[in-house]
Design a protein that fits this description.
Two copies of one chain form a homodimer. In chain A, the strands form three sheets. Chain A has an eight-stranded antiparallel barrel. In chain A, strands 6-7-8-9 form a four-stranded antiparallel beta sheet, with no helix packed on it. A three-stranded antiparallel beta sheet of chain A has the order 1-14-15, with no helix packed on it. The longest helix of chain A is centred in the N-terminal third of the chain and has 12 residues. The first copy, chain A, is α+β, with helices and mostly antiparallel strands. Helix content of chain A is 14%, strand content 25%. Chain A is globular. Chain A has a domain of 162 residues: Cyclophilin-like (Cyclophilin, Beta Barrel). Chain A is built from five helices and 15 strands. In chain A, strand 7 and strand 8 form a beta hairpin. Chains A and B meet through loops of A and loops of B.
Chain lengths: 291, 291
Amino acid sequence: MLSLALALAAAPAPAKPPRTPPEIVAAAPASAWRAIPADDLLVIDYEGGGRTIVQLAPGFAPVHVANIRRLANSGYWTGSAIYRVQDNYVAQWGTNDAKKTLPPGIVAKPPAEYVRSPRGLVIRPLGFADAYAARVGFAGGWPVARYKDGSVSLTHCYGMVGVGRDLSPDTGMGGELYAVIGQAPRQLDRNIALVGRVIEGIEQMSALPRGTEALGFYKEGSVAKKIAQVRLASALPGSERPAFEYLTETSPAFAAYLDRRANRDDDFYRVKAGGVDLCNAPIPVRRVPAR
Amino acid sequence: MLSLALALAAAPAPAKPPRTPPEIVAAAPASAWRAIPADDLLVIDYEGGGRTIVQLAPGFAPVHVANIRRLANSGYWTGSAIYRVQDNYVAQWGTNDAKKTLPPGIVAKPPAEYVRSPRGLVIRPLGFADAYAARVGFAGGWPVARYKDGSVSLTHCYGMVGVGRDLSPDTGMGGELYAVIGQAPRQLDRNIALVGRVIEGIEQMSALPRGTEALGFYKEGSVAKKIAQVRLASALPGSERPAFEYLTETSPAFAAYLDRRANRDDDFYRVKAGGVDLCNAPIPVRRVPAR
């Protein structure tokens, strides 16, 4: 009996199956992850330190993204600032100085890349109702909505990045960008060009003092966060190049993650929600060693 | 002809009908507004200045709210702090110091006031789909969800305030509170006691540096925002007493407001959303002169 007891004691404890969304994500196999190209990573460095990294979405707003890459490569944003922070809405940065020389190749008046054709997109449905669109889900690592007319848009979830613009038909050339820092302002979907999302360092924007003027603009001359430089990750030396992967929506791990977001039943929870909002199931992204 | 032209020129310009949600709210008649009782206003003053005001919801969590009023009246939170700020989730404050003497009348283990009976509640439906509940809408000035079993809960929208707790069956006695500062974490609905919402000064919480420890807790000894005192507005001298009103969900002005939130068509917009999420239609609240 004693030997049996010892044998039992020595046996490894049965592995606890992953239960929370972060546990599911941590247990996802390498095959469930896809690398984000270095040309799709916009690295924003602030004066005095701190960094925000934006993943660009060339599949949804190709002309705007091409502009943004050109602006980054030309050093366009050096010395610009975050000049607007509106609580529960957006932080906005960059510049649209008419006197500033634009790098060659910039499309000054891009088309309205607010929606795209569904052609070539496979949408993994969220599976729960949405107040704004006939169907919502995920495609190519992005949250998307599909409308009755068949068009597809990215959606204004927390951290998504769009292009500031004046009144229509202006669509913004990309010099001024904003990130969502509150409840998803989905009324902006199909009305503005979304070009990416913050994947690291959102707190450099979301934790800033709110601007006291209308729409969260800072008072003239008051301190806005200054931007030292904005570069594509592909322009950084290899050893300093940040690298990220996202969990593909076609993987079983993503399905399990989504199910846990909709049906939390770990020890804290008493009642499963039985559903989840598109913007409350952010696509998991992880940092990986430089390649 | 000249005199006609002059007459026309002298006629007042036709009044522009209100078009944006803020314009609708600004034009709402006095009859559409209802006063918030001074006993339902929790006034949080910070060391070094700044104030946050929370409207309490005694109709949804009466035992917890009674506790909170007693704690406020006893000065329980003086010298406490905001000790947790997790990006896109919550800011949490207060204290649960077992050595601290509780004022008389505190219910140490309140019931799970996570849902309530629909009896006596008239829910004005939102009219758009929701990922979490069979029906959502507004009742008594609050965003609510009604579930298949007939129960009703408040919903974790931006700014809503809940009671921190340990694992079930603990429900928290009210000494530790949190406010939502990101995308609505609706999975918490029916799992925690919501007791109110921030109606002024949310930026005192949402713009704080994010805690660097797990779940957004601050590193021990690092600076959390210190709370000087927390009082009910009813405990303040009349001349200093803040006063607020909310737009009643039964008013035509509220219906017009909701319609504009769902169908923005002012000059910036190209496409109407045709819907709005419950948490993207915050109930309008306004400050009024002290009574």
